[in-house]
Amino acid sequence: MWVPVRRCAARVVIPCIWRGKYFSSGNEPAENNRVTPMLRHLMYKIKSTGPITVAEYMKEVLTNPAKGYYVHHDMLGEKGDFITSPEISQIFGELIGIWFISEWIAAGKSAAFQLVELGPGRGTLTGDILRVFSQLGSVLKNCDISIHLVEVSQKLSEIQALTLTEEKIPLERNAESLVYMKGVSKSGIPISWYRNLQDVPKGYSFYLAHEFFDVLPVHKFQKTPQGWREVFIDIDPQVSDKLRFVLAPCATPAEAFIQHDETRDHVEVCPDAGVIIQELSQRISLTGGAALIADYGHDGTKTDTFRGFCGHRLHDVLTAPGTADLTADVDFHYLRRMAEEKVASLGPIEQQTFLKNMGIDVRLKVLLDKSDDPSMRQQLLQGYDMLMNPKKMGERFNFFALLPHQRLHGRSHQMNAQQSRPSASPVAGFDELTWR
Ligand SMILES: C[S@@+](CC[C@H](N)C(=O)[O-])C[C@H]1O[C@@H](n2cnc3c(N)ncnc32)[C@H](O)[C@@H]1O
After folding, report:
1. pLDDT, tens only, 407-436
2. How far away, in angstroms, is 71 Cα from ligand 1 center?
3. Residue 70 CA: which ligand 1 atom is closest?
4. CA geometry: angle at 108 spanning 105 and 114, to 5°?
5. 68: Cβ below 6 Å to ligand 1?
6. Residue 63 Cα, ligand 1 centroid: separation in angstroms?
7. Distance between CA atoms of residues 229 and 206, nearest Å
8. Thinking of the domain 73-213+270-406, which architecture would CATH place it in?
9. CA distances (Å), origin 165, targets 127, 147, 168
10. Model confidence band, residue 367 (pLDDT cutoffs 50, 70, 90)
11. Of the candidates 339, 331, 275, which has an alpha carbon nearest to the alpha carbon of residue 304?
């Protein structure tokens, strides 16, 4: 028998939720309970084949090619549903650009590299990075750079093209191809768009994922006296046109993702994140490069973090699906576990620490000194506060990196414990190196 889940009890474990600009009490109203095209689609699906997993629900609601929230919306920024660090301050992207150049130098200045961004939103982050690449043209001269964007959203890919490409050079489009769009940046760098990471050429690459892993579908599980039971979504028998959470009557295959020694009583697992981390790790171990992942998350300690955002407010995840963003905290412990064999990992470390180590204070001072416009100065200071303040994004957001083992350990994986550790240059941003 499918057992109803008491939703409000689970929500209590998230006392204060942050995505974008505002704090919330967590007592989000279930207003706006209208029948959206997505709700109609999901009810039809559930009536035909039975309750669906939370992962299937997230995937349908966010990326269904016809009605998905990400596919046709521009949800970022003040007028959208949430705001992200690159949209808050140019300094964020500039420091990340410096990080990639620093890693490129530390790894021996390869003759070419690909910059691959997963889920690039409005293209703002890659735009800020490309500006740094242009400003440091003398350092990168003779390096053959190409940009590769992995994006499922038709709407956002159009905005990315507007942000990043030179309008005088027409875009090449081919919806049937794995590379569905091609263009050239304002500084003459080729840009290609893909729907899947697997389709990006396997060259020497630097990968970037900012607020990407948190939108990937999660399975949710609850510990019961009978063992782990997966949370599903069903139609509420009491109220037509309403969805509710239920527990599966027996074990489901996704339970295999739960660790045998798991001590929490509610867990979220994201197999898609595991697949992507394994793909990144495989690529980095074979061809070199690095991945930088920034997101809000935890180290395998949190329980129910699944939530919705609409108009900069928390939104009931089951209400008016398709009109609000759905997200769950990234489990960095799980990401590390998926990567460990093939590559080394650093972090997660808090955003405030990473940005401080990258020199955010110096960069802010330079920009303040250069500007005599009071409103610009105020904007710079407010942006800094939003990114760095521990009560805002400074603590909640984390940085995590994947690097070839040799990058951190020199050739230590070939040495025994008695031999001294070979020197490797520190990795910018991560002040304490984790020797794994
Ligand atoms: C929360 S937004 C973050 C945007 C941007 N990185 C930023 O920080 O401003 C998530 C991004 O990932 C994209 N996205 C969501 N699911 C995806 C998937 N399965 N594959 C590729 N892109 C996806 C969305 O369209 C959007 O561009």
Report:
1. 987 644 444 444 444 567 899 999 644 444
2. 10
3. 25
4. 75
5. no
6. 10
7. 39
8. 3-Layer(aba) Sandwich (3.40)
9. 9, 11, 9
10. very high
11. 331
